[in-house]
Amino acid sequence: MTRPAFSRLPVPVPLPLLLQALAQIRDSDWHRHFNHDYYRGEWSGVALVSAVDALTELSPGRGEPRLRAPWLRDDRWRQALLGLPLEIVSARLLRLGPGSRIHEHRDYDLEGPEADLRLHIPLLSPPNVDFLLDGLRIPMTAGECWFLDLSRPHSVDNRDSRERVHLVIDCRPSAWLEHAIIEGAATTPEPGVGHAAQALAQFRRLLESDPQLCQTLQRVTDREAFIATTLTLAAERRLTFSREELQAAMRHLIFHASRCGSTLISQMLAHLDNHLVISEPPPLDTLLRSTLPASERSAAIRGLLSAYGQPRRGVEQRLVIKLDAWNIAELALVRECFPDTPWMFVYREPLEIAVSHLRRPGMHMVPGLIGASALDDGVPFAGREDFIARRLGRLLQWAVEHCREFAGLAVNYSELPEAMDGRLAEFFALNAAQRVQVFSNVNRHAKQPTERFVADVAGKQREASQLLRECVECWARAPYEALEQWRGR
Fold it and tell me: What is the mean pLDDT of residues 232-236?
């Protein structure tokens, strides 16, 4: 069974005993965290157990674990952990001061099946602290024990007036711990939305209901001035989000199954002067499927999208990237770079997609044309119908899994174009005037702009051969139905 990204372990935690031990920690025991570039404000720690060869007591190391002075002074730490049969590699207290923030990052040393597993036991956990993992708020409370896969993107924002303190334990994988993680996942509370995301959503609603506020922002054409003005207007209304959180909300990502309406959405948005729409840029696909080291690849992807987001005419404020169809398999990497950026997956009845590719195959539906990709299954195919249906099925399966894991917005072709005045208008934060403007040329064919658009559902259904129908039913029907279930939840 696949290990979940997070799990609240079904184990008792003696919180009063741990708080007694915490109260005896001396001020001189706390040391500034060694990753100075990872945070803003006050982030400090106390080493209880750490590697003998660690550069500092809080730093990682490869040597045998050594019990440090605060642990040796107070036996309550040992007593509190007696009920957890763990092979502890390190244990430390981590304190995040009021108003402080740990920037988004990944702990690459925790990646892989043989890596150490990290447990968090909140000791002081005020309510206005957001611990975000993959962009979702993990609802940890004091006295619980949580496994967190921190090889994934994560950040912490202490918006409270009180400090946050966790006991953080790194330990070796074991049968007991793996069982506890799987067992705990069944009763783990659902992640939520962080305070910043809530504030951004509330600010969007204010823009929709307050024409004067909307006009104030519409008059600001410079991107930097727009960001500064938005932050000021939000703060005046007691809505707090950071510059980086606002910038993430000003980007949108479109993933798709191909031949399903994603081009229509892109072209509708391209009619808006303040939107910059980039469609299937080859350099992004190259980076996403490259073999560069993870940190270098992520930095390159961030730099590329930063370049794409530079205004051309001085009025663009929002960036929309439509990726190649097969890039849905790389969504986890994209989320690593941009975890707070909203994304959608557009699709349609798989038989209609398959007919379109039989007529005029896309690059990923021609064997070998895009090189190795996650759509390959390594099994010989029995004709074009089988090849197209199998790859389409794998593509839709990736979409289902990622929608569930990363809370993607599923959009069916049948909703278009009307949804651009409904839930897609909300997704892209379009105001009333923009909702009208996007429909200005909607009757043009997305792929052939000189031709008038005519719905082709019935024609494609009639054109489908019995063989193609059987292949689609075998390979693509189940993930399509799962996407429909996710869309209608």
Answer: 93
